[in-house]
Amino acid sequence: MRALLTLALVPTLFAATPALQIVNPVLSQMDGGAPDPPGFEHVPGEIVWFTCRIAGYTRNENEKVQLRYSVQAFDPQGIPLDEIFQNEMTVEVGPQDKDWLPKIATSLALPPLAPPGDYKIVVKAEDLLAKTSTEFAYPFKVRGKAVEPSPTLIVRNFQFFRDEDGTRPAEKPDYHPGDGVFAKFDITGFKYGDRNKVDVSYVTSVIAPSGKVMWTQPEPAAEQSESFYPKRYVPATMGINLTPTIKPGEYTIAVAVKDAIGGQTYEAKFPFTVQ
Fold first, then answer.
1. What is the mean pLDDT of the chain?
2. Which of 26, 71, 230, 266 has its CA 20 to 30 A from that of 210?
3. Is the pLDDT of residue 155 over 50?
């Protein structure tokens, strides 16, 4: 998260707002952009921009202002999206500048696999001269992919597709000789290491009606990464091309998953038909 504290001239009446408070919050899709309309939903991986101002601060006999503030965003479960940003400022504000309000401007990147739901940006400010503080939570929504959590390693949302870049799953996993068979699924229930490290790998195979393994991935596909925000699931894919001479029948895609950090393994099978 990047943040910048500046002073901006904004009309206000301190007599009407004597207490320290956060005012004029704005969330936007771009720096200096228009505020989000009511009900707007952001998407995972997006960069969002948030601004607000601090009102009701005090000045000492030397016309100086001393403020401290922090900004942090949280997901629907209250898990922070990034490290907290904290800053402190001392600035001289003369009598002619009595209407100036400090401005907090921050940008943050939503996690690529952020779940859907109601999020919030929490701003805390402290007037170091008056020994007063305030806190403000700004809500916003994210339209993400929901993957049901699991206490143990598991494959969820296995879906067949008819092309590699397809976005609409096949209504029935029925294929013909020479077709491409593609699948997408999610792996969850793995354990985390230090700094939310993930070490998950998987191998897919195709099994004939006789039970014979026809094809197996040459090498496991692996996800090894660290992040401040915990990765909720690992998206996975596989694809093969059926030979023109393959015999009709019910075939199976077998998925074998390994969680190296948690010492877990999981296997599942998903049938499809060659007509």
1. 92
2. 266
3. yes
Per-residue confidence (pLDDT) for residue 17, from 0 to 100:
40
Q: How many domains does the chain have?
A: 2
Contact 237, 217 (CB under 8 A): no
- Kindly report the pTM of this predicted structure: 0.86
Q: Which tens digits make up the pLDDT trace of 35-61?
A: 999 999 999 999 999 999 999 999 988
d(CA 54, CA 17) in angstroms, rounded, equals 11
Q: Do 164 and 81 reside in the same domain of the chain? A: no
Residue 31 is encoded by which pair of tokens?
């720096």
CB 191 within 8 A of CB 259: yes
Q: Is the pLDDT of residue 14 over 50?
A: no
Whether residues 197 and 255 fall in one domain: yes
Cβ–Cβ under 8 Å, residues 169 and 138: no
The terminus-to-terminus CA distance of the chain in angstroms comes to 53
Q: Does position 159 have pLDDT exceeding 90, yes or no?
A: yes
Long-range contacts of 156-164 (CB under 8 A, 24+ apart): 156/185, 156/186, 156/187, 156/188, 156/233, 157/184, 157/185, 157/186, 158/183, 158/184, 158/185, 158/255, 158/268, 158/270, 159/183, 159/184, 159/185, 160/270, 160/272, 164/239
